């Protein structure tokens, strides 16, 4: 088990019995949106650079969406594993 964190030294660790806060879900959604927008701007820049509109935008948007969803999947699987380990064997 982990030691409890001293007060005033960062965010508290969530226990297994506590449901995830809205901030965790908002953070995952924000991460997806930022990833998607960043890849979109990369595609726009590549299209301007190579004169191949709209192909790089389309490719980068799909790659950005896939990367964002994969990141959310990893985050959710890590949270599920953490909660299962904290609950202990049944």
Gist?
The protein has 2 helices and no strands. With 90 residues, it is mostly helical. The longest helix is centred in the C-terminal third of the chain and has 33 residues.
Strand content of the residues, in percent?
under 5%
Largest sheet: none
| Morphology | elongated
pLDDT below 50 for ≥5 consecutive residues: which ranges? none
* SS summary, helix count: 2
The helical percent reads 55-70%
Main structural class: mainly alpha
Could you tell me the mean pLDDT?
A: 82
What is the first-to-last residue Cα distance?
A: 17 Å
Radius of gyration: 19 Å
Order of helices and strands: HH
Tell me how many strands there are: 0
Polypeptide structure, described:
The chain is mainly alpha-helical and 90 residues long. It has a domain at 44-90. The protein is built from two helices and no strands. It has helices at 22-50, 55-87. Helix 1 (22-50) runs antiparallel to helix 2. The longest helix has 33 residues, at 55-87. It is elongated and about 60 Å long.
């Amino acid at each position: 088990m982990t030691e409890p964190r001293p007060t005033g030294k960062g965010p508290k660790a969530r226990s297994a019995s506590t449901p995830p806060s809205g901030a965790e879900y908002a953070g995952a959604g924000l991460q997806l949106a930022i990833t998607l927008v960043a890849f979109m701007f990369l595609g726009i820049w590549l299209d301007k650079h190579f004169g191949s509109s709209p192909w790089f935008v389309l490719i980068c948007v799909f790659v950005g969406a896939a990367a964002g969803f994969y990141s959310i999947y990893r985050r959710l699987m890590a949270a599920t594993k953490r909660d299962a380990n904290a609950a202990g064997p049944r």
